Amino acid sequence: MTEIISEMKCKLFIGRKHYLELDEEHKLLYQLEGSNYVVEFPAILEEGITLGDSVLALVEAAFLEGNTKYEISDDTKVSTELYKLGQTDISFNVLVTIQYKAEKYKKKHYEMLVFTEKELSNTCYSFELIGDQTMFNMDY
Fold first, then answer.
1. 64-108: per-residue pLDDT in tens?
2. Model confidence pTM above 0.85
3. What whole-number distance in Å separates Cα of residue 5 and Cα of residue 71?
4. N- to C-terminal Cα distance for the chain?
5. What DSSP line would sit under the chain, residue for residue?
6. Beta carbons of 43 and 125 less than 8 angstroms apart
7. Rounded CA gap, 61 and 26, in Å?
8. Which of 29, 35, 136, 138 is the most exposed place for a label (fewest CB within 10 A)?
């Protein structure tokens, strides 16, 4: 019989480059662990709520909202979508769509974040931000 897990710990790891882009309030959420910064929160897996939903919520709340380059405020519309890369379960993308009130929500801005899984157990899921659109910049 398979055990049903209703709560597990989620950890998001980011590198120094992405950590430095965060505002001071969001930097306080992260702890230095090795050469990366990590934020942790509980994922409650109830009926209709998946681990993917929790991953997106963590990325939005702990990374996107606090990242100064995205200029997200209370009146900004942000949506995220999770995409699996190929046949592997260890890499995935998050497509971020941002619409600003100042532009009357007509223009959509996109960001693509690339993640890799670090750990998956019955009690913990950890993943790391390994890149964003700047990966494709020739100067990166």
1. 999 999 999 999 999 999 998 777 778 999 999 999 999 999 999
2. yes
3. 36
4. 49
5. -PPPP-EEEEEEEE-HHHHHTB-HHHHTT-EEETTEEEEEEEEE--TT--HHHHHHHHHIIIIITTBTTT---TT-EEEEEEEE-TT-SSEEEEEEEEE-GGGTT-S-EEEEEEEEEEEE-SSEEEEEEEE-GGGGSTT-
6. yes
7. 9
8. 138
